[in-house]
Amino acid sequence: MRAPAGPPSGAPGWWRRRWELTSPTVREGLVTGLLFGAIVFLWSAVSLGIELAYGDRLRAGTLPGASFGFLDGLWHLATGFLAALPARQRTLLWAAPALSLGLDVDHLFGSVLPTVIIRPAHDLFLLAILATVLFAARGRFGMLAAVAAVLVHLGVDGGSFPFFAPASLVAYPLAYPVQLALIVLAVVLFFLAVHPIAKLRDRPSFLRVVVSIAVLAGLLVLIPTGFAGFTSN
Questions:
Q1: What DSSP element (H or E) covers 135?
Q2: Are 5 and 196 in contact (CB under 8 A)?
């Protein structure tokens, strides 16, 4: 599938080629997922090194309970799937849940490995790095799917996040309206990863997007903190 995706007319040729809309294959999904997980892990390690260089205190890893780990993983798989469901694209339907869960690769730091802060990759620097690297490596699909996965993960995760780590170790909680805004943006970006923006004007597509957002918003009311089992410092 190829369709105009609307890059600026004056954009460089390489940028336009990267932004071109194509239908992702199974291989595309696997490569995107592996790159995503590698970047999350490497950024977490780099952040830890920077924090230790600044003299921050190291804490030993503490393994969470197995029941929590299962429920938390199931929560992110389910919410990632629901966010991608309106797009109705096979590769995205399994890649989106995997990417959403994949952000928790950074929980290795604080569970198996030592850390300074918990959830070291749940931050805005990592989001920018993912967008840049995956756009350069995998184009439109890789960038939008990765960014959407991070946003839906943050939107449903609960607790507080070190958004500016390692520059600042302050953790910021998210109010429900902010969580909802992240979910809305994630659902739309998942859709745009595999469809042109004009398709959102189609009534069936628009209704699927609205229903997905409404279901996720309702789940947040029923389970307001998700299954967040780590407490930010």
A1: helix 124-157
A2: yes
CA pair distance 128, 147, nearest whole angstrom: 8
Contacts of 35 (CB under 8 A, 6+ apart): 133, 134, 137, 138, 142
Measured from the Cβ of residue 34, the count of other Cβ atoms closer than 10 Å reads 11
Separation of alpha carbons 129 and 26, rounded Å: 24
Kindly list the distances between the CA atom of residue 110 and the CA atoms of 36, 69, 118, 211, in Å, as whole numbers in the listed order. 20, 14, 6, 36
What residues pair up with 21 in beta bridges, in sequence order?
3
Amino acid at 211: V
Residue identified by tokens 């592996």 is 34
Residue with tokens 């929590």: 68
Q: How many helices and strands in the chain, by DSSP H and E? A: 7, 4
Find the radius of gyration of the CA atoms of the chain. 18
pLDDT in tens for each of the 233 residues of the chain?
A: 344 445 555 566 766 777 888 889 999 999 999 999 999 999 999 999 999 999 999 987 776 666 777 888 899 999 999 999 999 999 999 999 999 999 999 999 988 889 999 899 999 999 999 999 999 999 999 999 999 999 999 999 988 899 999 999 999 999 999 999 999 999 999 999 999 999 999 999 999 999 999 999 999 988 865 554 443 33
Neighbours of 10 (CB within 10 A): 7
The pTM for the full model equals 0.89
Residues, the chain: 233
